[in-house]
Design a protein that fits this description.
Structural class: alpha/beta
Distance between the termini: 40 Å
Bound molecules: zinc ion
Number of strands: 15
Helix content: 40-55%
């Protein structure tokens, strides 16, 4: 099977040719952990999870290495820690835990490696030293900066010239910069800020260098696929390429650059700064199913923008009910085996909307199928499509049971209030009964100094 991807670096669809078919290497920029992930953050996780599944299917499970980092040192994390009166470690441990829970609820497989930036500071310091030695970086006032004019091909990924960069005022002006487009590799830390010793004094890395150091260490100097959201093309990915290529003296950092489009709310990009976002966590708390969120995220082609609404999630849930019903009704044993239509759709630059419509087509045929052999073939194809898209990964009975039994957030809150009232009245038998009743419905209570919180199992 030939896989085609749209490669941002070439601005065209290309045949995917791995460097080594026995060792496919993919890197995706992961989260900065200081808060709950919103749906916009979840889209690349789901998209690249489908790509990971397709590559494993095509080249074999043991032949694909997927790396997605965790940024656990950042000014936003420092701010969050200060605000909450917590240590940085507490903030990152807690929020990385939320991230893992939420992404698992969306059916995303864990990556093969999940490096944390703070574990790779020596590699970052070494890489920065190398860039200084090669004349691509310079130290100034406790900072180390990448010298953008030293790289002839800077701007190749984002199709920007140096003049565009300055005219577009996309660069931060600072007195210690030789050129306005130069960007920070290392910055000084005050005594109360986290820092590491380096040849340029105690400080901490800039964001871009993290991905160059971690991908270089784990995947090598040139690897197959680098992914992330469209908003990372400039400056983040442009700067990653500049650092990696100049430090290693290579013509490429990664061969294929894949970028997913934005999640929108009423036609506007969902973002934390605009405040128009909803988190995966709150949607799950409202009773939306993780699998429905996943299906909704796959309904548009990954390069296109997508609007996610609560009504859309309800429609996705209804669509899944239809798929699970068809599987349940076809009472034959079947092993997952995607058919050629599904494979062709996904091999064509991950055409998930086409693959999903093919699944519905299979359901229509399955509902009409009469003999066991025909049912088995259709059910296999449906389950095989599900395995590639990360859908239909549970038993139909479990899906329907969870649907009917799922308590709404307001019901849970009112039961917690009733339990608190019982505890206040020292009616502990009643309080325990309510706790058990919620546990049976898949809701776990946790009593803490701030009151009672709950989560779904
Ligand atoms: Zn990155």
């Amino acid at each position: 099977m030939t896989i085609h991807f749209y490669n941002t670096l070439a601005r065209e669809k290309q045949v995917f040719e791995p460097i080594d078919p026995n060792r496919i290497r993919m890197y995706v920029c992961g989260p900065t952990v200081y808060d709950y992930a919103h749906i916009g953050n979840a889209r690349p996780v789901v998209i690249f999870d489908v790509l990971y599944r397709l590559l494993r299917h095509t080249y074999g499970e043991g032949h694909v290495t997927y790396v997605r980092n965790i940024t656990d040192i950042d000014d936003k994390i420092m701010e969050a820690a200060k605000k909450g009166g917590e240590s940085i470690e507490e903030v990152t441990r807690r929020t990385a835990g939320w991230y893992h829970q939420d992404m698992a609820a969306l059916g995303a497989l864990p990556p093969d490696r999940e490096p944390r930036a703070t574990e790779f500071v020596p590699q970052m310091v070494a890489m920065i030293g190398n860039l200084v030695a090669r004349g691509h970086a310079y130290a100034a006032e406790g900072h180390v900066l990448f010298n953008v004019p030293s790289m002839a091909e800077y701007g190749r990924l984002s199709k920007r010239s140096l003049d565009d960069l300055i005219a577009g005022a996309r660069v931060e002006v600072a007195p210690y910069k030789k050129h306005p487009a130069d960007f920070v590799l290392w910055k000084p830390s005050a005594a109360d800020q986290p820092g590491w010793d380096s040849p340029w004094g105690r400080g901490r890395p800039g964001w871009h260098i993290e991905c160059s150091a971690m991908s270089g260490e784990i995947l090598g100097q040139v690897f197959d696929i680098h992914g992330g959201g469209l908003d990372l093309i400039f400056p983040h990915h442009e700067n990653e390429i500049a650092q990696s290529r100049c430090a290693h003296g290579t013509a490429l950092m990664a061969r294929y650059w894949l970028h997913n489009g934005f999640v929108q709310v009423n036609g506007q990009k969902m973002s934390k700064s605009l405040g128009n976002y909803f988190t995966v966590h709150e949607l799950l708390d409202e009773g939306h199913r993780g699998e429905a969120i996943r299906l909704a995220l796959l309904m548009a082609h990954y390069r296109q923008p997508i609007d996610i609404t609560r009504d859309g999630l309800k429609e996705a849930k209804t669509a899944l009910d239809r798929l699970y019903t068809a599987i349940q009704r076809a009472e034959v044993e079947a092993l997952p085996a995607p058919n050629d239509h599904i494979l062709a759709a996904l091999a064509d630059d991950l055409n998930t909307p086409l693959a999903i419509s093919e699944m519905h087509e299979l359901v229509s045929k399955l509902n009409k199928a009469e003999n066991a052999e025909e049912k088995r073939a259709l059910k296999s194809a449906l389950l095989g499509a599900g395995a590639l898209l990360g859908l239909l990964q549970q038993e139909p009975a479990a899906w329907f049971q969870a649907s009917s039994g799922a308590l709404q957030a307001e019901d849970i809150e009112s039961r917690i209030a009733a339990r608190n009232a019982a505890r206040k009245a020292k009616n502990f038998a009643e309080a325990d009964r309510i706790r058990k009743e919620l546990a049976d419905a898949g809701v776990i209570l946790e009593d803490g100094p701030q009151g009672t919180t709950w989560k779904r199992t």
